[in-house]
Amino acid sequence: MADFAIAIENVSKDYRLWGRRSQFATLKSALLKRDLKPASDAAVAALKNVSFAVDRGEAFGIIGRNGSGKSTLLKLISGILKPTSGKVVVNGRIAALIELGAGFHPEITGRENIYINGIMLGLSRREIEQRFDKIVEFSGIADFLDQPVKTYSSGMYVRLGFAVAVHVDPDVLLIDEVLSVGDEEFSARCVAKIQEMKYRGVTLIFVTHQLDQVRKLCDRALWLDHGQVEAIGDPTRVVDAYLQEVSGTSLAASDAAKSDAAPADAAPAPARNENDEERWGSGEVVLKRVALTDDQGRELVALGAGTPVIIDVDVDARVPQEDFVFGVGIYHADGTCVYGTNTDVEGFTSEKIEGKGRVRFVVPSLDLVAGTYRIDVAVHTRNGRAFDYRRNAIRVVVGSRVHDIGVYRPQHQWRFDGGIGITHSDVRAQNVPAPIAEAMREVEGQPRGRRRK
Hey, how many other C-beta atoms are within 10 angstroms of the C-beta on 315? Predict the structure, then answer.
């Protein structure tokens, strides 16, 4: 099988529009026309030449305004609809939670619907019985399990539907905007379950208007606008571009970029420079110089573990703002988020920013394991609309003579009690494994002219 889970190739989907003139008034009029098939007045394109691929185990978010084609795309992937043109290829078993109560029969009980829905998703009766208790426990509706589902609330529909979908062990899980119907407690459980499935390698495709979930859960995101792909890629960049469009500040960004300073100081549409930095935002507030320095103000590109550092950011507010948040993120070279924070989550309340200023993020001890890291900096509104987002603004190499692994090296000590005999070797000074360092120390301690036999 191919490496991808889903491949969409030049897919378009048209819906027919039926007007009054396309309907027959009587059977006689249809026979007189000698054509029993009514003709549509027109067609509307829900999707237009959409192409992308989703890798196995990837979490892929789809965002856009209502009517942009998001739900149609999920129905094409699930096989509910067929494309007007193009090709949809899916590798693996699909579980879909696309519409509220889809696949449930309202007249029968929740217990019976679990079996019917599970069979529709490809499970045998025995497999459903093995999963039944977990499904009921996750749904939290055990007291109403033997009641007709037509008596269920919308939240109970979602609970039962999601519980069945995530317990059929799918290769691909499709989720439309249904989790917003549930309460906070259930939504948190759903997010935790999604993260668990992502860890297990399940491919996740979900449509949502909850943009924070896209930023946190997704590896990539797709923005659809009027049935066309507007942007695809890094979820933070795609979400920010979407928010800029929705707020109508894209034009203001270009005007701000033209009005003052060099183009490099503006925050244009996503662009890369020679350091592989990505940058986007409205340009109303711009992050100019971004540097990693020591306490003497000297810029650093390489440092040792535990070094005190400062992230220095020069800020230029071209348009005064009252709603602003400064953020910093540290990432390993493989993309793992090591640490991220911003002024809002740490309790700082924005009042006003205008003109030029400086932000300093002071770290008394950067306790990172040896490796290459990138630092992102951003200024945005509280709802996430970017003024200037600089991804990969700083690249830094952390060196260490200690051969530990991971990303974080906490301050620590080893202590040994009882019948444990162990000798400490200064491996940091030798930069070699402990047994070799001990052998070298023994040789160095012998008088000259003597050799060990």
Answer: 20
Q: Can you give the C-alpha Rg of the chain in angstroms?
A: 29
Look at phi and psi of residue 64 and say left if phi exceeds 0, alpha if psi is from -120 to 50, else beta: left
DSSP state for residue 151 in the 8-state scheme: G
- Work out the number of other CB atoms within 10 angstroms of the CB of residue 429: 9
Find out whether 70 and 223 touch, Cβ atoms under 8 Å.
no
The greatest distance separating any two alpha carbons of the chain, rounded to the nearest whole angstrom, comes to 120
CA distance 228 to 8: 13
Say which DSSP state 180 is in.
G
Token pair 């025995």 in the structure block, residue: 126
Are 269 and 258 in contact, with CB atoms under 8 Å apart? no
Q: Is 0.85 surpassed by the pTM of this model?
A: no
Specify the range with the lowest mean pLDDT, choosing from 3-12, 20-29, 154-163, 222-231: 20-29
Name the nearest CA neighbour of 51 among 208, 272, 224. 224
In tens, the pLDDT along 248-285 reads 654 344 344 434 433 344 444 444 444 578 888 888 99
| Contact residues for 379 (Cβ-Cβ < 8 A; gap 6+) | 281, 285, 287, 315, 324, 325, 326, 327, 386, 387, 388
Q: How far is CA 336 from the centre of its chain?
A: 12
Dump the DSSP string for 214-271.
HHHH-SEEEEEETTEEEEEE-HHHHHHHHHHHHHT-HHHHHHHHHHSS-GGGS--SSE
Type of residue found at 446: Q
CA dihedral sign of residues 229, 268, 242, 291: positive
Tens of pLDDT, residues 78-122: 888 899 999 999 998 888 777 655 667 888 898 888 888 888 777
